[in-house]
Amino acid sequence: MARTAARTMTRADVPPPWNSRRRGEGDFEASPEWVRADLRRIASQEKSVPIESPVHETARAIQALLDLAGAADPAFREHSLNVAAVSLRVGETLGLRRHELEVLRLAAAVHDVGKLAVPPEIISKPGPLDEAEWAAMRLHPAAGANLLEPCATPPDVLAIVRSHHERWDGTGYPQGLAGEEIPLGARIIHVADALDSMLTAQIYRHALTEEDALAELRRGEGTQFCPRCIRALEQALGVRVAAPESAVS
User: For this structure, is 115 an active site residue?
Assistant: First the structure.
């Protein structure tokens, strides 16, 4: 028998952009200060961050990429903030430590910078992409990691950015990682990214309702998405959605 939602969900259940929840810590549009602060804390935990690359220089370089991506795509900033907010809620629910949450927040903020390497006519195309265009779009996770690496971005952040479109069943990209091979942060961002994309109206399609978006995520549980992350999202939002029709006996 199908499970039904515990209650009706509203847009308020989805976390607001990080900068509206905790102004000053997550507002990368206004200042790189939070990027610098997160990098400083991450660097204190990761010996692999080069000493010859001061944190403020790394923050400035990452901020420049964020500014370029925001200028190229007006939706970039809001989407990145929303993905960061949802990711942090999921990460907190999963019990990630503060250092891990800081890595997750930074990775979520920069997860799409690789779209700078995708032709702008593909990014802004007013309709579904064809196969050749999708091939170009699929390059953006690896391109993002390649753009961030010279900035002395922490290795954990690079791994998450590179892997945020890997799928639980191993059919994702760019490396075809599966299951626990995929960094947990990438699995979290994959779920948050999909949720925000479905809740956002596109030129060629309407936004889904919250219930429909969560139902779509559940349909992808164990194939596209990490089951732990789906359950953590539901727990963070206090919602259970109906099981997909194929699972109803």
Answer: yes
